[in-house]
């Protein structure tokens, strides 16, 4: 699960010509749900949104208070495009949870926020609608948040798998075989290098 959290002085959501939601000072949260997200991801995101210390305290000390500490509002907007994976220059959204599953999951996240805070201070847009979101960012302050159990980027995952395969191949080789390979590589690089018995010529030549 991904969230873009912005500290705002005000924010509004409009559908067509109608303003469906608005807040004053607080947080505007763009929320993207993936196909692999569970309740554990939702609990993590809700906890972070409500407890991030993005506001100053009564004495003006920055990064001291959360949205709950200051009794500010939260505007949540569902945004599946946060789960975009680029294929060349074309965005692909297959990692986003399908709308028929995402909508009840998203609603449960809102309910969790309302039960953890003051329900009248939690606002949202209109799920699945074409919305115009107006944000007056305060600072600007923007935090990108991902739940720790969320899916990895497939390209990064593939890279990690290849690295793991190389490590396993290295471990499968006996120590004598690996030593022979390293010795052969060293000899090919510097046929005149000594093993050190007559003065370590190899160490003198290497930086």
Describe the fold and architecture:
- The chain is an alpha/beta fold and 207 residues long.
- Helix content is 34%, strand content 28%.
- It has five helices and eight strands, in the order βββαβββαββααα.
- The protein has helices at 39-51, 99-116, 154-172, 175-189, 201-205; strands at residues 2-15, 18-23, 26-32, 73-78, 85-87, 90-92, 122-124, 131-146.
- Strands 1, 2, 3, 4, 7 and 8 form a six-stranded mixed β-sheet that branches. A two-stranded antiparallel sheet has the order 5-6.
- Helix 1 (39-51) links the parallel strand 3 and strand 4.
- The longest helix has 19 residues, at 154-172.
- The chain is globular.
- The two termini are 47 Å apart.
- Mean pLDDT is 83; it is low at 191-207.
